[in-house]
Recover the amino acids of this structure.
């Protein structure tokens, strides 16, 4: 069994945001391997987040972000379960990060469920009618359209977009925060304004 130093626990805490005892347990379980311990904490966090996802989230923040130069602005509402959590630095940082994401990558929808049915059907029809899809055998066209649709979700749905230059999506970032903060968190809505653009 590896000797778990306080410095190693500190490194894992900085990497994951998890509590001291959780980090120590994960490091003990991973025999002092920082990457394995991170994976263990992430898996536990995902399980905890899944349990919390059905809980009511009515508190939170409405926040704004104006990009340098004043050409792009965002209003965003992010909900959590309690006013106490809404006032924490960690939650406020998450809300700001999400607002910056909306400003930079200009998603149209929060998630797949928020896409109006008629917009989704129109996109499917557009993809199916594409010349490159029509050249393929009829039996595999639906799978091709499904793959292209998933790629489209990654562009237009906030939670499906890659978060900054990281490997994870915005949805995975939110799940990580649910695990560390201990409350359900969801983006309720946002509005993005760009100078000279029609809404």
């Amino acid at each position: 069994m590896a000797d778990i130093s306080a410095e190693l626990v500190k490194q894992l805490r900085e990497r994951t945001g998890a509590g001291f005892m959780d980090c120590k347990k994960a490091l003990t379980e991973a025999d002092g391997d920082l990457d394995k311990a991170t994976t263990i904490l992430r898996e536990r966090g995902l399980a905890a987040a899944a349990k919390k996802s059905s809980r009511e989230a009515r508190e939170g923040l409405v926040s704004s972000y104006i990009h340098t130069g004043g050409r792009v602005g965002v209003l965003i509402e992010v909900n959590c379960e309690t006013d106490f959590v809404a006032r924490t630095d960690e939650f406020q940082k998450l809300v700001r990060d999400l607002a910056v994401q909306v400003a930079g990558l200009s998603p149209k929808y929060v998630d797949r469920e928020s896409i109006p049915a008629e917009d989704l059907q129109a996109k499917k029809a557009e993809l199916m009618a594409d010349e490159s899809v029509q050249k393929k055998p009829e039996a595999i066209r639906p799978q091709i359209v499904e793959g292209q649709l998933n790629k489209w979700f990654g562009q237009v749905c906030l939670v499906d977009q890659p978060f900054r230059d990281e490997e994870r999506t915005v949805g995975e970032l939110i799940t990580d925060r649910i695990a560390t903060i201990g409350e359900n968190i969801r983006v309720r809505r946002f509005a993005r304004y760009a100078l000279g653009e029609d809404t």
